[in-house]
Structures are given as structure tokens and as C-alpha cells.
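quick q for whoever's on today - can somebody do inverse folding on this one?? i tried earlier but teh output was garbage lol. C-alpha cells:
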């Protein structure tokens, strides 16, 4: 089996790509694999190198090292360079980048110049994004969500191998963002498109992507399915970046760990001092006068509430409760139970990784 047939399993694959700007290592040793029709989110804090990776994929930035394969074809490598316009990539930017002086139809047709049957493809993508009724409108006559769909239609129209999204929803207000990103996901699914999108919003990444690659300091530090990433963060940093987390010191002995909340089985056998991570929604409180903790703060959010519980030792934990929590208010003593199988976490202090399951 030659290299090409191996690579053809993925719509996009990078092998050890990296980029430095002077002394700044923007991205290093990036290995990504995205299967055909899959959505990958590149998630990380500002400055971690997400956009640099996207720009290398698009061909706007030549990597210093490594290879990029798109649709089974090497487009960037030690002796290979395929220019951006020949990579069969569609781009959707944060600011949509629609031509303001062109109508919806003309914006979409822009990428279809080489198509013989331009009109039928135009109708097809307009139908896909649900904009048949506004084809002759100008961009300023559309809502933010509609403009985003035009940008998506324009990117999809020439049937690219991959679509790259650079923070595509950050210009939309909160209510619209949730709706538009679900629409975009459905459109990409219907089109069978492969996509990579960059975001620093963990909720967006977890709710949209089939796979999330978490970047920190120029590296992909964990890449996995959203559920697995959330339940099994491999470092303290990933655990906190993906959501709320409580950490308790513990002592691991083989396949169990002992900490202030009790004893728990470990997913992977460990020995010695570890940090055990508990998501707030996994901590269940029951009112009890002989309880081990006291509720010291209650914050109500409507759909749920966050309760801070202090133990006699001084330890503070956060518990997120959904629904009616009668009797659970500030000053109440409580028992704390771990409701669901918990995940492992590495200690910040170089201790072994502890994986907890029940
Ligand atoms: P953000 O979410 O803020 O857009 P990012 O994760 O996309 O950030 P990059 O834009 O890829 O991060 O930048 C990674 C690092 O490389 C940063 O330290 C940035 O300052 C640096 N960098 C990016 N482009 C250049 C450039 N053209 N010249 C010099 N440094 C650059």
C-alpha cells in the first residue's frame, strides 16, 4: 500500500506541521486527521496557534516543517507546494467577507465561474442553505444569520474537499449564535461536507464537532470526541478549559483512589499522590444535619443553580443542580455524593494521572 492510498482515508491530514514567526513558536508538531464528512473543532485560548494552523491548511502560510494532505493529495511538504486556489478548500470567515456590491446570487456565483451548469448549482446551494427567497438581495438587506448562510453557500458551491471556518459565529449575538450554528451543522451534514472550524468557545466546539482538538501554546494537547474529551481530560489545563471542575488531592493505590469525598475506583491503575477531578454536575447534595459540608453560597441561573459547599477542613466545592432543590439553601448542612462515573485527571504538580469510575 503506497502513501497515497493510506492518506486517502482522510479528507484532511497533517503530519507534524509547524510554524515559527521569529522566536515565536506559533504551532508545532501538529498531527490532525479528519475523516470525510466529519467536523473538527480546533479549540484553544487566544494566541495558542489555531489561526496559524488554519492558514497553513489553506495555503496562506507555508509551514516550516511537516506535510499537509487534502483529499488524498499532498499539498504541502518538503518538496511539494500547491497554491491556495488549487487546494479545493472553501473558507468562511468571522466577518463573512461577502462582496457588499454584489447580490446574494452574484456572491455565490463568484466561486462558480468554472462550472458549466452554474445556475443549477446555484439553485442547489440556495436550497441547501434555505435562501431561495432572497437571491437578489444585497448583503446589507440580510440579517447576520442570513449573511453567514450566504458565506457558507459561497464556500460550498464549488464542492470543495474541505471547508475551513475561522471563528464563524463570533459576530452573532448569543441567541442567534446558538440557532445559526445548529443550522450550519445541519447544512454541512446535508452536504456531506468535511469541515474544520476554529473557536475559543468550548460550548461551541463540544456541541458542533465530531472531534475536538484542544490547542495550548502551539500544540494539540488532546484530540477526541466531545463527550470523551469532557469526561476524560488528560491534563488539569484541559479539564478547566472545557468547563467547570473541582479538584481534590487524593492518594491512588492501584485501581482505587482515596480523597476527602471517599474512595473511588480508578479507570487506570495509579500509585501515589494525584488530583481527582469532579465536575460540579456530578456532585449531588442531600440535606442532612450530620452532613459533612455546609452550603455557603447559592447562585440561581434559572435552568440550574450553583451551590458552594464548604467542608470542616476548609475545602470548597461547587455543585451544579438542575430542577427543584427544595431545602438546599445557604447555611444548610449537606452530604455530598458522587452521582456519575467520574473521570481521571493529572495533577498540576507532576503526580500520576488518576482515572475515577464508579
Ligand atoms: P486568536 O484566538 O487570538 O486569534 P490564535 O489561537 O488563532 O489566537 P494565532 O493567531 O495562530 O493564535 O497566533 C499564534 C501566535 O503566533 C501568537 O503568539 C501570535 O502573536 C503569533 N503570530 C501569528 N501570526 C503572526 C505573524 N504573522 N507574525 C508574527 N507573529 C505571529
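ok took a stab at it. sequence:
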Amino acid at each position: 500500500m503506497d502513501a497515497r492510498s493510506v492518506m486517502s482515508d482522510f479528507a484532511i491530514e497533517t503530519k507534524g506541521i509547524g510554524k515559527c514567526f521569529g522566536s515565536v513558536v506559533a504551532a508545532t508538531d501538529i498531527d490532525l486527521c479528519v475523516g470525510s464528512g466529519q467536523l473538527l473543532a480546533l479549540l484553544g485560548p487566544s494566541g495558542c496557534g489555531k489561526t496559524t494552523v488554519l492558514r497553513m491548511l489553506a495555503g496562506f502560510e507555508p509551514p516550516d516543517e511537516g506535510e499537509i494532505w487534502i483529499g488524498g493529495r499532498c499539498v504541502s511538504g518538503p518538496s511539494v507546494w500547491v497554491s491556495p486556489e488549487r487546494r479545493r478548500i472553501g473558507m468562511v470567515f468571522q466577518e463573512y467577507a461577502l462582496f457588499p456590491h454584489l447580490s446574494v446570487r452574484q456572491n455565490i456565483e463568484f466561486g462558480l465561474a468554472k462550472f458549466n451548469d452554474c445556475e443549477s448549482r446555484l439553485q442547489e446551494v440556495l436550497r441547501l442553505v434555505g435562501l431561495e427567497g432572497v437571491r437578489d438581495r444585497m448583503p446589507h438587506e440580510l440579517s447576520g444569520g442570513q449573511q453567514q448562510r450566504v458565506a457558507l453557500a459561497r464556500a460550498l458551491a464549488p464542492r470543495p474537499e474541505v471547508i475551513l471556518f475561522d471563528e464563524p459565529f463570533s459576530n452573532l449575538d448569543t441567541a442567534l449564535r446558538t440557532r445559526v450554528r445548529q443550522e450550519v451543522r445541519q447544512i454541512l451534514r446535508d452536504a456531506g461536507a468535511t469541515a474544520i472550524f476554529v473557536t475559543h468557545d468550548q460550548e461551541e466546539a463540544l456541541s458542533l464537532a465530531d472531534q475536538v482538538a484542544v490547542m495550548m501554546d502551539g500544540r494539540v494537547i488532546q484530540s477526541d470526541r466531545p463527550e470523551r474529551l469532557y469526561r476524560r481530560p488528560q491534563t488539569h489545563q484541559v479539564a478547566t478549559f472545557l468547563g467547570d471542575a473541582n479538584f481534590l488531592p487524593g492518594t491512588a493505590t492501584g485501581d482505587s483512589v482515596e480523597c476527602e469525598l471517599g474512595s473511588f475506583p480508578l479507570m487506570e491503575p495509579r500509585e501515589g499522590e494525584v488530583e481527582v477531578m469532579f465536575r460540579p454536575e456530578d456532585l449531588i447534595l442531600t440535606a442532612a444535619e450530620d452532613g459533612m459540608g455546609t452550603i455557603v453560597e447559592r447562585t440561581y441561573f434559572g435552568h440550574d443553580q450553583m451551590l458552594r459547599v464548604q467542608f470542616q477542613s476548609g475545602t470548597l466545592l461547587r455543585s451544579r443542580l438542575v430542577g427543584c432543590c427544595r431545602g438546599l439553601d445557604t447555611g444548610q448542612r449537606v452530604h455530598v455524593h458522587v452521582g456519575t462515573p467520574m473521570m481521571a485527571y493529572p495533577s498540576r504538580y507532576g503526580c500520576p494521572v488518576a482515572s475515577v469510575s464508579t
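fwiw The radius of gyration is 24 Å. also The mean pLDDT is 86. so keep that in mind when u check it
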